[in-house]
Amino acid sequence: MSMIHLTINGKPVDAACEPRTHLADFLRETNNLTGTHLGCEHGVCGACTILVDGVPTRSCITFAAACEGASVTTVEGLDDDDITSELRTAFSREHGLQCGYCTPGMLVSARDVVLRMDAPSEHDIRVAMSGNLCRCTGYVGIVRAIQGVIADRRARGIAAVAGGGRTRLGPAGSGNASTAKEAAGASKAAAVAAVKPAGQPRTAARKDDNWKPQTTFEQSFTVAHPTDVVWDFFGRVDEVAACLPGASLNGAPEGGPGGDEHVEGQIKVKVGPISAEFHGAADITRDEATRTGVIDGTGKDKRSNSATRGQIRYAVKEAETPGETRVDVAIGFTLSGVLAQFSRSGLVQDVANRLIGVFVQNLEARLAHQAGGGDADSAPVAAEFNAGSLMSSVIVGQVKQFFARLFRRG
Ligand code: FES
Ligand code: FES
């Protein structure tokens, strides 16, 4: 057990919790705030959405212990909030709820939409609310209720607050969502949600050594080619990108060989019904002496309004089998926005493992092509990464693991 100190609905709370306790359980069981509902407990349905430092956050995939010093606002804390009370009335009027199970999370997300978006179209609202699932009412009434509140507030001269008044963006709980208390139209609860003690970590700039990724994992693979060849290949960024499914560069890398390089480009990823195209940039550093490299990148997917920041560290060394090369890769990243629900490490790691598997196949094919005298221009190029079938293999893999564990236990 460890002690945590945070603010919940404007009141300071000091309480003990297990490191594994997620914030939703902490709110419901330790603080009796049962307005926060739990549906999937996997970060998908949005029923557990609350505000952490003013940012809508899945409390089922947020550890309570990670919220030390944070300001947490649950649906109970929005009782006197102007936007939420208008939404409550509109939800009733438009039949935006039936059983009400999804409603606390819906209200928290809808409040954020009303606060941030000036004149969103129906499509914009549907995209913004796509992280909240309703199993019984459907979405027509919910969307209409949100549209009604926005239209009404704008007609009364209450403007949207760009970015919700956040001067810096998440991740939620990082203290980077500092909301201007005086933000136009922001209610008392918005101010409460914005409270954050000084001295908390802030959004890191690129290449900031203090940046800590939300999710990290390591991978190793062996390539059936000599170490010198593989190390040289990793120095040709355009060729490495050509092996990465869905990745393309906007031009030649800037910078000198052996030194820092800067590239801009995009990567398309399709996972089940979700397709994203992250546009961004990366800085690449290589150390010839240790045969290690670091890639620092940031990207944004406009459609889902999601952003990612990541770092890949790699080390190229001789494998146990002569003539082969082992590559150790450490990946760390932070995903924010609508796609953040996929940050849960198990699923992301499964997808990443398969992505790296495809990368290695492409790498082998390209190196074999070059060893056979082919040039880079005629080498095979990786196709877009479509994980439609991959998702089912991920799920099948996880089911297999579950049964394996079960039988081992038996
Ligand atoms: S309970 Fe479904 S997202 Fe948290
Ligand atoms: S009102 Fe029943 S789940 Fe949304």
- Total beta strand runs: 13
Strand content: 15-25%
Major β-sheet annotation: 8 strands, mixed
Mean of residue pLDDT values: 79
Low-confidence stretches: 177-206
Summed up, the helix count is 10
The CATH superfamily of the largest domain is identified as: START domain
Helix content: 25-40%
Tell me, briefly, the overall form: elongated
Question: What this model shows, in words?
Answer:
This protein has helices spanning 23-30, 82-93, 103-116, 122-128, 140-155, 188-194, 227-234, 237-243, 345-371, 388-409; strands spanning 2-8, 11-17, 49-52, 55-58, 71-73, 215-223, 247-249, 261-271, 274-287, 292-301, 306-318, 325-336, 385-386. With 410 residues, the protein is an alpha+beta fold. The protein has two domains: 2-165, Beta-grasp domain (Ubiquitin-like (UB roll), Roll), CATH 3.10.20; 215-409, Alpha-D-Glucose-1,6-Bisphosphate, Chain A, domain 4. The strands form two sheets. Strands 6, 7, 8, 9, 10, 11, 12 and 13 form an eight-stranded mixed beta sheet that branches. A five-stranded mixed beta sheet has the order 2-1-5-3-4, with helices on both faces. It is elongated. Bound molecules: FE2/S2 (inorganic) cluster (FES) (2 copies).
